[in-house]
Amino acid sequence: MGELKDKAKGLGNEIAGNIKQAAGRATNNPQLEAEGMAQERKGEAQGLKGKVKGALGDKV
């Protein structure tokens, strides 16, 4: 069950990060754009964590 939760959180962070990046570019705000990139990377890591949990869960 943790697999789906991590994947969902990851996807949410990726989407929010992409929105922040776009808003940062649109308003010429490099700090907001950088925050968006960081949040997107966090989401990618969470999604990977979910995939690993899923792979390990299938093997156990």
From TrEMBL:
Residues 6-56 form the CsbD-like domain. Belongs to the UPF0337 (CsbD) family. Transmembrane segments: none annotated. This is CsbD family protein. Residues 18-60 are annotated as: Disordered. It comes from Sphingorhabdus lacus. It comes from the Bacteria. InterPro entries: CsbD (IPR008462), YjbJ_sf (IPR036629).
